[in-house]
Amino acid sequence: MTAGVTSTTQARPWILPVSISLVVASFLAAVLLGVVDIPARDVIAVFSGNGSPEAKSIILDLRLPRIATGILAGIQFALAGYLLQTITRNPLADPSLMGVSQGATLTVTIFLLFTVYIFNPGSNTLAELPIAWLPVAGTVGGMAAGGLIYLMAFRLELSPLRITLCGIAIGAVLHALAIGLIAGWGSARIEIILEWLSGSLYARTWDHALFLLPFTVAGLAVLPVIYRPLSILQFDPTVARSFGLSYRKQFSLVLLISCALAASAVGAVGPIVFVGLVVPHLARFLGGRHFSLVLSLTIVLGAVIVTLGDLVGRLAGGAEEVPIGVVTAILGVPVLIALLRKLP
């Protein structure tokens, strides 16, 4: 084990610096490129406090908040997927397979369909709907789904594999309920619901980034605390307990953190699929068996993948942009198939 870690570290010392450079490069590309062509000199002028009002509006009010929201959401999705895959010892675990995304989807659907009657009785005017509360609604639903999975896991003393299966079953039920509600009552608001369900950074503002920031900071800040328990939780419960680990307590803590990260990200940008599933595997491929390196790469690559995926969607769709959830699904499917072929 030690030899494997050492060889990986010595053979690939460039991986993390290159990955961080990719974050910077993807950020610059996302700022410079878009439907509206803004010369680099005008972008530099904006950051230096000058620039035209149009360039300032596009960069400071549209592109930067969108990029910031995407980076934070990407970190949260990727980290949540890594944590879930580690504690369940299931390489296919991610927020959508564990039911967290579907819980957020159901509450957001209910919110979009029915709260208009509470806040503006007798009217179907969508403009009266408090859309700013959407991330909160999604977070509450995702956390509730995670709590349900937790209760089932420990009340029934389920194994990590069975926890995953419970998450899939619960997610399927919640998704079916959401689709049923959309089919029955969603005709007047179908556009905004479908946009959210596809996973999108369209029209994201600084408020969305500020909503995600505490979750991202807290998730990253707690990593040193859970680092050792997390490295042990990847083993069988019997082996983990032999190291003196309080298995149930630590498992519950990591599950709570992963659900909070995933639920808040889904609430802010919708269920961007495959990020939580694919990014941890890409990090393991690059980082080998070096646990801390893989964890760091997961965080960095989550930001890169979402930023570049959103940029691809903006450039490919033109004025009618392609949602990032569609881009990540198209690009993630080949990676998932390759992963499935490697599994026994």
Walk me through the structure.
The protein has 344 residues and is an all-alpha fold. It has a single domain (2-342), classed as Orthogonal Bundle (ABC transporter involved in vitamin B12 uptake, BtuC), CATH 1.10.3470.10. Helices cover 76% and strands 0% of the residues. It contains 15 helices and no strands. It has helices at 2-11, 15-32, 40-47, 53-88, 100-119, 134-155, 160-185, 190-197, 206-221, 223-233, 237-242, 247-269, 275-287, 291-317, 324-342. Helix 9 (206-221) packs antiparallel against helix 12. The two termini are 22 Å apart. The relative contact order is 0.18. Residues 1-11 and 124-128 have low confidence and may be disordered.
Radius of gyration: 21 Å
Strand composition percent = under 5%
The largest β sheet comes out as: none
Secondary-structure-derived class: mainly alpha
Q: In which range does the helix fraction lie?
A: over 70%
Task: Spell the H/E element sequence.
Answer: HHHHHHHHHHHHHHH
Distance between the termini: 22 Å
CATH top-level class: Mainly Alpha
User: How many H/I helices?
Assistant: 15
Total tally of structural domains:
1
Instruction: Provide mean pLDDT, rounded.
Output: 85
Brief summary:
The chain is an all-alpha fold and 344 residues long. It is 76% helix and 0% strand.
Question: Tags for this entry?
Answer:
single chain; 344 residues; mainly alpha; ABC transporter involved in vitamin B12 uptake, BtuC; globular; disordered N terminus
